[in-house]
Design goal:
single chain, 6 strands, alpha/beta, 4 helices
Length: 136
């Protein structure tokens, strides 16, 4: 993957930063159709990757529809994944923990994630995770 690729999903943007980082910038309310569009986009853009790295910027999120949880939990992908969240309310963090734990247990996903106060520390952690996942 050599070229920068970008897609718009509702009010949100998804940008693939070569070689292997998907950057999601959320604005407004995250709705169930957005989750479905994200899953399809991720499948298309990252089909050839052995692992998945995602930076999710939540600083401008105003809310998340409850139906989104089911959509996220339904995404099937056996690859190892690391997601760094920037920002996010306490409520969002609790919901993310519940979804991630369910995905680990029921979908048997190898999933690491952390919340960060700023993008620089999130990117630093993802760089470490890239080295770890490449060696796996």
């Amino acid at each position: 993957m050599s070229a920068l690729r970008q897609a718009v999903i509702g009010e949100h943007t998804a940008t693939l930063e070569p070689p292997d980082l998907l950057v999601l910038t959320f604005r407004g309310v995250i709705r169930a159709p957005h989750v479905a569009a994200y899953a399809a986009l991720r499948g298309e853009l990252l089909a050839d990757q052995r692992y998945l790295l995602t930076l999710a910027d939540l600083r401008r999120v105003e809310g998340v529809e409850p139906e989104c949880r089911r959509g996220i939990a339904a995404i099937r992908d056996e690859r190892a994944q690391a997601t760094a969240f920037v920002g996010g309310s306490f409520r969002f963090r609790v919901v993310a923990e519940l979804i991630a734990n369910a995905a680990r247990v029921f979908a048997h996903r190898k999933l690491a994630f952390r919340f960060f106060p700023d993008e620089a520390s999130a990117r630093s952690w993802l760089t470490e995770m890239r080295r770890t996942l490449r060696g796996a």
